[in-house]
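Something for you to look into today, if you have time. What I am after is a single protein written out in full by you. I want to see for myself how the chain folds. Could you add the entry underneath, on a fresh line?
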Amino acid sequence: MSKSGLTRTDKPLQEATLEELIRELLVRVGEDPDREGLLETPQRVAKALNYLTQGYQEDSKLVLNNALYTVQYDEMVIVKDIDLFSLCEHHLLPFFGKCHVAYLPNQKVIGLSKIARLVEMFSRRLQIQERLTCQIAETLNEEINPLGVAVVIEAQHLCMIMRGVEKQNSLAMTSSMLGCFRQEQQTRLEFLELLRNSKSQRL
């Protein structure tokens, strides 16, 4: 490794592989990438990062895959407690929690597993929680044209827990309300009340 900031292969950083950049990172934080415990770390981290950011290679239309069905159902559809894991774009540290999605059908319903897949697709990108919440809501609104969509995310951020203010019990909550969930207070309150009731039953 040279002192000029090049990787072991002496490639300019803009030409280096992800594994080579991670090896350089280990050197920069004061580690020896050739010691036994770190020999395979660049490959492992590169593989993990590719997995955790695979949402960039996915398209919402392909994820939803036209899984729309004509059904005479006009009550609220809610998918709760979707596990969510993402990486904060500010520090590349994880944030994780639950996503709750509701929509009011307009003659069409979507396969329930597709909602979870959509949450997964957007969360596997570098994110901030606020944008993630809006992306899920706006995509569902565009693709299934419901009367309204509501998304609520509750998450813990390691950038707050491990560093900075180090508030271990902090929880961030964000919401996006579209259509009737934004325009009609009764619909919005019904959704939020159903979330509260389900939480209290689990306690």
User: Anything to note?
Assistant: The longest strand covers residues 77-88.
